[in-house]
Amino acid sequence: MVGMGRVYKDTSKPSSSSESPSSPAVTTSTSITETVNGSHDFKITGFSLAKGMGIGKYIASDTFMVGGYAWAIYFYPDGKSVEDNATYVSLFIALASEGTDVRALFELTLLDQSGRERHKVHSHFGRALESGPYTLKYRGSMWGYKRFFKRTALEASDYLKDDCLQVHCSVGVVKSHTEGPKIYSIPLPPSDIGQHFGKLLESGKGTDVNFEVDGETFSAHKLVLAARSPVFRAQLYGPMKDQNTECIKIEDMEAPVFKALLHFIYWDTRPDMEELTGLNSKWASTLMSQHLLAAADRYGLDRLRLLCESNLCEDIAINTVATTLALAEQHHCFQLKAVCLKFVALPENLRGALVKFVKKNMSVYYLLVVAVMQTDGFEYLKESCPHVLTELLEDIVGREVIVEIKEDLAFRGTLHAVDQYLNFKLVNTTVADPLNHPEMLCVWNCFIRGSAVRYVHLPPDGVDVELLQDATRREARAS
Hints:
GO terms for molecular function: RNA binding. One of its GO terms (biological process) is cellular response to salt stress. InterPro entries: BACK_BPM_SPOP, BPM1-6, BPM_C, BTB/POZ_dom, LSM_dom_sf, MATH/TRAF_dom, SKP1/BTB/POZ_sf, Sm. Belongs to the Tdpoz family. By secondary structure, the protein is an alpha+beta fold. It folds into four domains: about 30 residues, no CATH class; about 150 residues, Apoptosis, Tumor Necrosis Factor Receptor Associated Protein 2, Chain A (Sandwich), CATH 2.60.210.10; about 120 residues, Potassium Channel Kv1.1, Chain A; about 130 residues, SH3 type barrels (Roll). It is about 30% helix and about 30% strand. The protein is built from 14 helices and 21 strands. Strands 16-15-21-17-18-19-20 form a seven-stranded antiparallel sheet. Strands 1, 2, 7, 8, 9 and 11 form a six-stranded antiparallel sheet that branches. Helix 8 packs antiparallel against helix 9 and helix 10 packs parallel to helix 12. The longest helix is centred in the middle third of the chain and has 17 residues. The N and C termini lie far apart (about 80 Å). The N terminus and C terminus are likely disordered.
């Protein structure tokens, strides 16, 4: 919606015959009212399990941002109103952030999952509204339908498939602003300072410091390094600076990694990993990103570290996730660590494992993963940061495990909780061998101390757990 107004500023005096006529000065402005639009898809699985949770109780989507405000979808499996007696399901869109008199248009769509696209749509868009857009007075205000769909009809419809519903929500937040006369502008090119510094490095002109890395020598400029890295600044200009700048030796780093580090310092971009390694391989690129992340952390290059984290997240794979997870833990990359743990805990990746608990010095326990995804990376993970494996167990809370206390006593149940001392809480518990332990048949929920645990079998699909267990016991006897 666009409104146009003009303001006339009369600078002339009352007309007289002695004065020559003059044209009034005219200025213009434009008031523009429009919507800032966004949408969110909300998938509701386990509909049959959500029934009976209670009238007025809801399942909420994650919050999403549109027009500078947070929004959330609320689905009521048993309805929102007591008077409907759970006959209808209710669906609402709510303002989830602070706001006053937020005006918006909404559309709620229940998707037809038969492929015929006969969606159930309630929309403000594309039609005239007598009273204008809907106004939400404060945080928590809602728009929607208490009687969105009769529940019995919904359960027999094509909107419900595999016990799953899919809702699409569109929000258009009304915004108004006033524009003055357009001022012509000249387009500006993007910053090219990185190009200039990069070419300076390539030319080798004016270099005043050399680095020896793994048998190779690299020349650079002290001022550039000091401006970009606090570590280089201390090393080159601080109280404990290196006296010999003709050749500073860099330990514990490979030459291609240092070359990539210099590339970022001068060009302000991450180098092409394939060109740097000479290999057209995702594995080689991931390995270089891992080394470069460690180097970035070492020299205080936070932006480079984030670039490496982002690249490792995109290229996460089953044969590299363990070393990436250990790297994230050691260098405090919390976002990367969270992605790795979620990836490992996916059922298709965690194909089964036997976790062995070994007593050390009578009080300290650590984990030995005998087989998780069949990779060497988990041996490195076990040695470098074993407590991360506890977090891995936390990420599979809610899945079925078998906890063995003694060779002939084991419990199968749903992992409810595990703490830093490796104490386990199981629910829906059954004893693995009821014939030999009938006294345990009455145990439904149990708490098992880490000191008593010998083995934990993670979901064993596709893994010969007995073979793994026998191998581990032979190893224990040998040690």
